[in-house]
Amino acid sequence: MLGYVVRRLILAIPVFLAVSVITFSIMQLAPGDPAAILLGADFIQFASEADIQEARVLLGVDRPAVVQYLDWFTGFFRGDMGTSLFTGKSVAELVSTRVETTLSLVAMALVLATVFGLPLGVIAAWKANTAIDRGIMIFAVIGYAMPGFWLAFNLIWLFAVILGWFPVFGVVPFFQDPVEFLRHMTLPAIAVSTTFIALISRMTRSSMLEVLREDYVRTARAKGLSERVVLIRHALKAAAMPVVTVLGLVFAAAITGAVLTEVVFALPGMGRLFVDSVSNRDFPVIQGLMMIFAGSYVFVNLAVDIGYAYIDPRVRY
């Protein structure tokens, strides 16, 4: 098992390197001069060439691209992702103040997606080709096709404006007031998780249908085992491989998929920080967040690969 984990870690290294090169290259090719952003729109028209060159030296963009990349890449692992051109604060400081909100939103969305998606998929497979199955699949199709931002606006209109059950925007720290924290995060979590509930339920149903046709499932039923034991202990465990893949992708996608949701609900998370940085052309912050988002995908894929080995020992060999 240890050898398998080490091999997966080694294979993840070139993927992460490729992601870092692509991220850095995109920022290098992006239009706009970081020195002009640092000097400001009002001053740049009066700045001399010496002022602009001094600003470039201050930012380090006067050096060769390879040197800039190596300095930025090694700094990333030291926690030094540069300094924001817009606020003057370090990128690490900006991210540290936003990461709790984003991780809380992603965690709640993942819990909702798992708690509702798995049972719906199992029930749909158990009641295949019945009205229950068709109803769940209709919900899955609608939920998967529904834009998250559109659902978010409708949730705000119904539950916040009309009914007044939940706040419209903002967030309260969990340790300050857990109840208010849950009230602020419920609607955003529902908006993020709806698509993933639909995806998990469809994948679970598809995997379960294949397993329920196997001979050992019929044997388990013939031995008199309860339907709950047959479905959960025998069928769902055997059908878990594709479901685990989807759960890993859902976790990674929720981090990036929460961007628009955080903007709609005015949540101070990394997604909103990313949108603001793009609007302000704050290149260091964009680079740092892109590496964090991409790194989360690499880490989750690695965790899923390791999870395969625990679910199916044949994968280790």
Give a description of the structure.
This protein is mainly α and 317 residues long. The protein folds into 2 domains: 2-91, no CATH class; 98-312, MetI-like (MetI-like fold, Orthogonal Bundle). The protein is built from 14 helices and no strands. The chain has helices at 2-29, 34-39, 41-44, 49-59, 65-77, 91-126, 131-145, 148-162, 178-212, 215-222, 227-238, 240-264, 270-280, 283-311. Helix 8 (148-162) packs across helix 9 and helix 8 packs across helix 12. It is globular, with a radius of gyration of 24 Å. The N and C termini lie close together (9 Å).
Secondary-structure blueprint of this entry?
Layout: H1 2-29, H2 34-39, H3 41-44, H4 49-59, H5 65-77, H6 91-126, H7 131-145, H8 148-162, H9 178-212, H10 215-222, H11 227-238, H12 240-264, H13 270-280, H14 283-311
User: Can you tell me the CATH topology of the largest domain?
Assistant: MetI-like fold
CATH architecture of the largest domain: Orthogonal Bundle
- What CATH first level of the largest domain would be assigned? Mainly Alpha
Low-pLDDT ranges = none
Provide the structure class: mainly alpha
Beta-strand residue percentage: under 5%
The tally of helices reads 14
Helix content: over 70%
Distance between the termini: 9 Å
Largest sheet: none
* Mean pLDDT over the full residue set: 79
Radius of gyration: 24 Å
Q: Shape from CA axes?
A: globular
Note the run of SSEs as H and E: HHHHHHHHHHHHHH
Number of structural units classed as domains: 2
CATH-defined superfamily of the largest domain: MetI-like
Q: How many strands appear in the DSSP assignment?
A: 0
